[in-house]
Amino acid sequence: MLSLSSSSSPGSSLLWRNPTAPPAPPPSFKALCFPFSSSLRFIHRTTVSSLSCSAEISSDIALAQSHPAPDFNPWSEFARNVSGEWDGFGADFSREGQPLELPESVVPEAFREWEVKVFDWQTQCPTLAQSDAQTFLYKSIKLLPTVGCEADAATRYSIDQRSIGGSKLSALAFSYSASGSYVAVWPLGNDQLELEHCLINPNDKESRVRIFQVVRLAESKMLLQSVKVFCELWDGPFRNGDQLGGCAIRSSGFASTPITAASVVTGSWRVLLATTTFHASDSGCIQQVTGEKVIEILREEKDIMLLPKDLWCSIQESKDRGRIFSVGWLFEPGHAVTSSCVFSSDSKLKEVTMGRETARSDE
């Protein structure tokens, strides 16, 4: 029988293991490990330097090299950017990337009579991070679909509340960027995890996506079960979801829209990468991604699952036979934000990365 466990200290690194066998020692992090599979050909790696980077990401490099003000607090900046009422739409996808219809029991009869398929939930996600303490919580709310514009008829179908910090540590790991992006590892029980990747649009801090990869351990392998996607817009300061979005929502359903073209996300990319490394001795699960460096990767179509809204995700094998769960968002042509969860061969969380990518031209 396989079980999900973690170290005795809160926020310790994640470990799935067979309870009858002694746990493997934590893998050491080597400078040449990077969060892409061996099938993504390694081209070049260097420290951040304005002399070694192209003009394409010179502004990113300058930002990475700049020294923050003495009173700059990354968590406070994260709290400011992540907190608020986030409204939008959410959808479930199969492990092959196919959109899944909503349960028939929640679809209005009019849609069934018209043989209209419904794939998207209207959603709300009131989110709050306390700037003076490392606490974070949100409610992921799904609203029952309605026929036409029936704001007064909007009804909550489910509420999934999650939190970290303080006396509650329901996440096994949490990595954040001051921009408001974060990656969280949530235990679901029954040898399952949800890897939540929240990515903020660098050009519009009021636009974000959250991609969940539902993962199951089977025969000592980590397998993707399904994917959930939420596309959300900021709708004001935190109000704990006291108002339903109804017709005021500014976005629309996306699950059945065309998927991202492979040609715009494959090929050679230059990445400004920040990393959080996890060890068994970690005393807390909340960590900031740091240590920006530049790498170059070659992304191949066979490694990715293409999704709508310029999104994609992937599961790959690392050089040490571990697993890498990644997502990406092409927020404008030739520019993407990505994040990855890197697990060792014994299914232990090794590191989390966040990247800012620029496509390399043929020139």
Going across the biggest sheet, name each strand in turn. Answer: 7-6-5-4-12-11-10-9-8-14
Distance between the termini: 54 Å
**Which structural class do you get from the secondary structure elements?**
mainly beta
For the secondary structure, the number of strands is 20
Total number of distinct structural domains: 2
* The CATH superfamily title of the largest domain: Calycin beta-barrel core domain
Report the total helices: 3
Radius of gyration based on Cα positions: 20 Å
Task: Write up what this structure looks like.
The structure is a single chain. By secondary structure, the chain is mainly beta. It has three helices and 20 strands. Helix content is 6%, strand content 46%. Strands 7-6-5-4-12-11-10-9-8-14 form a ten-stranded mixed sheet. The longest helix has 9 residues, at 74-82. The radius of gyration is 20 Å and the shape is globular. Mean pLDDT is 80; it is low at 1-66.
Short key terms for the protein model shown above:
46% strand; DUF3598 domain-containing protein; single chain; mainly beta; 3 helices; ten-stranded mixed β-sheet; globular; 2 domains; 363 residues; Lipocalin; disordered N terminus; eight-stranded antiparallel β-sheet
In short:
The protein folds into two domains: 3-14 and 32-66 and 263-359, Lipocalin (Beta Barrel), CATH 2.40.128; 74-253, Calycin beta-barrel core domain (Lipocalin).
